[in-house]
Design a protein that fits this description.
The chain is of the alpha+beta class. 24% of the residues lie in helices and 38% in strands.
Length: 92
């Protein structure tokens, strides 16, 4: 789910679009599940995901990169290692 590679973290997530509000649901099947209050069209859900995580993890939006899964519910995100401490409570 969370791997450290060099100066970055790789995070596997599952996105659930069209939610009433954006929130972290928890961990299931080795993935961090996140509900996103945006439609999965024209990159809106991806932008909402990046904005939410930036605010939650106190990062800049540009620090959150979608490495794979741009058009999928299953995504791999690249985050700076500084996000690890803030992310750990959501992973347990």
């Amino acid at each position: 789910m969370l791997q450290k590679t060099g100066d970055f973290l790789s995070l596997n997530v599952k996105i659930i679009p069209n939610a009433s509000k954006t929130c972290i649901v928890g961990v299931k099947e080795g993935l961090l599940k996140i509900r996103v209050a945006a439609v999965p069209e024209d990159g809106k859900a991806n932008e909402e995901l990046r904005s939410f995580l930036a605010k939650t993890l106190e990062l800049h939006k540009r620090d959150i990169v979608i490495v794979s899964g741009e058009k999928s519910r299953l995504k791999i995100l690249r985050l700076p290692t500084s996000a690890e401490e803030k992310l750990l409570p959501f992973l347990s």
